[in-house]
């Protein structure tokens, strides 16, 4: 419980930085790039006692939650993660879906990220969804 409270506090602190005025970035190195926030979310696929979030479950979640929230686009890849179970002291392994989004930094971005995270936690009985954010540059040549 304490570990979860610490995790939620750290998450709130990290998302708070998205709400602050963006720091002045040096010019992006490639013509056509703009300063962006790069958010990566980590969705564990193991449902405690019920198997895995299936490919069709993930496709449905993507269609109903992620796509409407981030209609400008995103990238999804598969991964494998590990974490320490604070209750048992055992290291557990989990297949994951990794969602990467590049978007302008704003309070609205923080709200959208939290929306997706909470929707997944609720839909698939997850304790948490991992999140990392970094400032960077991105461009999408059209």
Quick overview of this protein structure:
This protein is α+β, with helices and mostly antiparallel strands and 142 residues long. Helix content is 35%, strand content 33%.
Write the layout of secondary structure elements.
Layout: H1 2-19, E1 34-44, E2 46-47, E3 51-52, H2 55-69, E4 75-84, E5 91-103, H3 107-123, E6 130-138
Antiparallel strand pairs: 1-5, 1-6, 2-3, 4-5
Helix pairs in contact: 1-3, 2-3
Walk me through the structure.
- The relative contact order is 0.28.
- The chain is α+β, with helices and mostly antiparallel strands and 142 residues long.
- Helix 1 (2-19) runs antiparallel to helix 3 and helix 2 packs antiparallel against helix 3 (107-123).
- The protein contains three helices and six strands; from the N terminus they run αβββαββαβ.
- It has helices at 2-19, 55-69, 107-123, and strands at 34-44, 46-47, 51-52, 75-84, 91-103, 130-138.
- The longest helix is centred in the first third of the chain and has 18 residues, at 2-19.
- The protein has a single domain (2-19, 32-138), classed as 2-Layer Sandwich (Alpha-Beta Plaits).
- It has a four-stranded antiparallel sheet with strand order 4-5-1-6, with helices on one face. The protein has a two-stranded antiparallel sheet with strand order 2-3.
- It is globular.
- Mean pLDDT is 85; it is low at 1-13.
- InterPro entries: DUF3574 (IPR021957).
- It holds the Pfam family DUF3574.
- It comes from Acidisoma silvae.
């Amino acid at each position: 419980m304490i570990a979860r409270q610490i995790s939620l506090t750290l998450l709130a602190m990290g998302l708070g930085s998205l709400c602050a005025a963006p720091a002045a970035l040096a010019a992006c190195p490639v013509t056509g790039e703009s300063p962006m926030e790069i958010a990566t979310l980590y969705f564990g696929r193991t449902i405690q006692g019920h198997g895995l979030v299936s490919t069709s479950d993930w496709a449905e979640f993507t269609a109903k939650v992620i796509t409407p929230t981030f209609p400008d686009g995103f990238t999804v890849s598969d991964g494998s993660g590990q974490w320490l179970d604070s209750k048992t002291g055992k290291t557990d392994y989990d297949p994951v879906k990794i969602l990467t989004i590049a978007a302008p930094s704003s309070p609205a971005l923080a709200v959208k990220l939290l929306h997706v995270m909470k929707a997944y936690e609720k839909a698939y009985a997850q304790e948490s969804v991992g999140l990392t954010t970094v400032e960077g540059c991105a461009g999408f040549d059209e």
